[in-house]
Amino acid sequence: MTTDLVSELADGVNTLRFDRIEFQNGLTAEMCDAAADALAFGEGSSRVRAFLITGGPGLFCIGHDTGELADFVTGGAVGDSVLRLFKTIATLDKPVVAAIDGIAAGIGATLLFHCDYVVASEWASISAPYVEQGLAPEGGISLIAPRVIGSPPSRPKRSALPAVFCVGSAATWSPVSIRRLTLSPIF
Predict the structure, then answer these.
(1) 42 sits in which H/E element
(2) Quick check: 108 and 64 in contact, CB under 8 A?
(3) What is the pTM of this model?
(4) Are strands 103-105 and 96-100 parallel, antiparallel or unpaired?
(5) What is the full per-residue pLDDT of the chain (187 aa) written as tens digits?
(6) How far is residue 28 CA from its own chain's centroid?
(7) Cα(141)–Cα(134) distance, rounded to whole angstroms?
């Protein structure tokens, strides 16, 4: 397993922690494969009752590794590691919780929508800047986000997500249902 993803089991909770702080936890194909493997193994283990996905202090995941994204562009194809990770999460029977402190952007934000529950610190922010970057939203987020968050009648229907979601609370850590995220585009 890659050293950029730490997997620990304690009290029935398999914690997967992104540990690539020097690159703002930019996800690589190797990290996605390691996470999918750990989740699949935990699903089959009677010692694991739930999964927790987290990053380091002040940072969940900034998105894809930019070097790998450049390779995808020059190679003309995207690897299947991210898709494999999302398919693995979607087929789990055990609950998946994400704990975010700081930024969750791009694929990091998309990952949250695949989890059963999200716990966020008051400093957490979720950003899905796909359209602003000229990219198509990934991981089914165009389909999943409106179903999870809802689409208020006062907001016109859009084909892509608002640019930024902000989550905050008076407490240091607060359970936040992803259904309660406040949509607030930052200009």
Answers:
(1) helix 29-43
(2) no
(3) 0.75
(4) unpaired
(5) 567 999 999 999 999 999 988 888 888 989 999 999 999 999 999 999 999 999 988 889 988 887 887 777 677 666 788 889 999 998 999 999 999 988 888 888 888 888 888 888 888 888 777 667 676 667 666 666 666 666 555 544 444 433 333 444 433 334 444 443 443 343 3
(6) 13
(7) 16
